[in-house]
């Protein structure tokens, strides 16, 4: 049976075709992917925002039939916008979760990630970074390391590549037969710092989300590694899929001018990366003081929240669940001036 996005209700505009057997789902500002084999067995790549499990299951059942479940869940990395529905889906489906071994501290409750950096600027999504959930999730017992041979559990013809920088254990997925690349957040296909870009989804190659990237030298090397694959189609965690000569030209431009196009002019991790290991965070560079940021945080945050509210109405109120989650958990977040050290070894 051929897998096509047409099996899902045409009223659901938050899914999109990527390549044969690959369907993307946009959850407010982040993408996840359903990837199938010729027999309609499939895996879920990333798990979106908190509150999105129902939408993910609805689209999966539209594609593969009622009661369907994947053979595995593959994580490109464990940031909050890629694991929001993970615990709910994993508990219901009872399937294994795979990630790079260096992501394990953040998926087993051992360590928080290096804190996001709203001082990088660039737009409301960056200025709002101080609001984003910071604590790790814990799926101990279901999560395990990806195979060392580069194979992707549950998928034939795919391989995973270690693409660190955005996180230490970040991975991307590549299918050699048609050169389809699932990027994760190693680079983006829209401006990830801009809330306006979230709503317009203008296709452009950009670097990884700067407010969450903690090692820029590694990030540069990862973009170069992915460009060397000469992909035909790229599907990132932020932005719509791109393909063809324009995509390759912009990707090559990103490689050649990475410092100018991707690396912020200032920020906590610009001159010194976070140091992490298999236990999590080992050492952080000092926080950057920027007197202009607090006012910008308030202004940009209000603008972004308003934009997300409008987006929610047109997209089945999915973003409202996300914003409610932020509101419900505000008491657990440190203020902007506080150092985020909870769960660090």
From TrEMBL:
Positions with biased composition (Polar residues): 331-345
One Pfam family cited in the UniProt record for this chain: Lactamase_B
High-level lineage: Bacteria, Pseudomonadati, Bacteroidota, Cytophagia, Cytophagales
Top-level division of the source organism's lineage: Bacteria
Disulfide bond found in the keyword field: no
Transmembrane segments: 292-313
Keyword terms: Hydrolase, Membrane, Transmembrane, Transmembrane helix
Metallo-beta-lactamase domain mapped to chain residues: 29-238
Region (Disordered): 325-345
Record-given protein name: MBL fold metallo-hydrolase
Keyword Membrane: yes
CDD domains in alphabetical order: yflN-like_MBL-fold
């Amino acid at each position: 049976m051929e897998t096509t996005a047409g099996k899902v209700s045409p009223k659901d505009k938050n899914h999109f075709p990527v390549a044969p057997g690959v369907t993307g789902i946009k959850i407010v500002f982040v993408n996840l992917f359903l990837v199938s084999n010729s027999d309609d067995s499939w895996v879920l790549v990333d798990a979106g925002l908190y509150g999105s499990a129902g939408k993910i299951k609805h689209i999966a059942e539209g594609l593969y039939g009622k009661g369907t479940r994947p053979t595995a869940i593959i994580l490109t990395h464990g940031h909050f916008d890629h694991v929001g529905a993970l615990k709910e889906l994993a508990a219901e489906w009872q399937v294994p979760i795979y990630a790079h071994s260096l992501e394990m501290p953040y998926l087993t409750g051992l360590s928080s990630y290096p804190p996001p950096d709203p001082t990088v600027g660039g737009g409301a999504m960056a200025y709002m970074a101080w609001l984003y959930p910071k604590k790790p999730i814990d799926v101990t017992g279901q999560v395990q390391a990806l195979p060392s041979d580069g194979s992707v559990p549950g998928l034939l013809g795919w391989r995973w590549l270690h693409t660190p920088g955005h996180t230490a254990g970040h991975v991307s997925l590549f299918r050699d037969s048609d050169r389809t690349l699932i990027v994760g957040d190693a680079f983006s296909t829209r401006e990830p710092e801009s809330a306006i870009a979230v709503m317009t989804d203008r296709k452009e190659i950009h670097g990884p989300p700067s407010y969450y990237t903690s090692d820029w030298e590694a990030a540069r090397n990862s973009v170069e590694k992915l460009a060397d694959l000469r992909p035909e189609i790229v599907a990132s965690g932020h932005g719509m899929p791109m393909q063809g000569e324009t995509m390759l030209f912009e990707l090559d431009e990103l490689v050649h001018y990475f410092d100018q196009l991707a690396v912020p002019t200032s920020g906590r991790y610009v001159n010194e990366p976070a140091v992490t290991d298999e236990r999590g965070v080992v050492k952080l560079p000092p926080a950057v003081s920027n007197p202009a940021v607090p006012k910008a945080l308030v202004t940009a945050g209000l603008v972004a929240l308003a934009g997300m509210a409008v987006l929610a109405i047109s997209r089945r109120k999915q973003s409202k669940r996300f914003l409610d989650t932020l509101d419900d958990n505000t008491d657990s977040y440190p203020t902007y001036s506080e150092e985020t050290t909870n769960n660090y070894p």
